Amino acid sequence: MVPLHFLGHLLLVNYVWSLRAGGAGKAIAYGAAEKGARVVIVNRTFEKAKDLAHKVGGQAIPLSEVENFHPEEGMVLANTTSVGMTPYSDETPIPKHVSKHYCLVFDAVYAPKDTRLLREATDTGAVIVDGTEMLIRQGFEQYENFTGLPAPEELFRQVMKNHV
Fold it and tell me: Which is deepest, 11, 46, 68, 162, by most CB within 10 Å?
């Protein structure tokens, strides 16, 4: 598992898929585009996908084409949907055989930490990043913005380890 902040380096040479055009999907799409990645947006509502893709200079594809669209190997997948979150932890946003096209898979889901998407991506050899890292880092920023003090990072990590 790699920390989320390493994503910026890996994005320079990859297609980045964002499964959803909501808040986290937008942040990942903008960040990836800023780092020079070719961004592909998928959303249940194709119009939302097209709108975000236009804003970041990316491409939108319909959800129905996810299985068949793999322009190159070694892409990055960012799942920012709630698919796979408790109590639906047996669900996944993509079929396992599609995972083989990705070198890195990020899942914003943090409960459970070990989602079906991440287990299947591991089986196909991808590096995985779970949603707890994003959640923890958001907490750091919020704490520092609210208090003006550095976040107690180890305490945050220990709390997450004990409760998620």
Answer: 11
